[in-house]
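Researcher: Re-running this chain for the archive, since the previous output was lost when a drive failed. Same request as before.
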Amino acid sequence: ALVMKCTHQDWNLIVNPKGFNCSLHGSSFALDGSVTTGPPTDPLKKLTTTIKENQLIIS
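Model: Regenerated structure tokens:
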């Protein structure tokens, strides 16, 4: 799971077929969260996901 906020200025991201876009400054991220177009230099924050007793746990 990825946090859907741009790592440049914490703006909401828009999903596209190849990844995610930030409409604030034109940044883009790949589906794995890596930066494909700046200005951010940090990838999207990844969250750990587990399934326990048929429940999805995101941490």
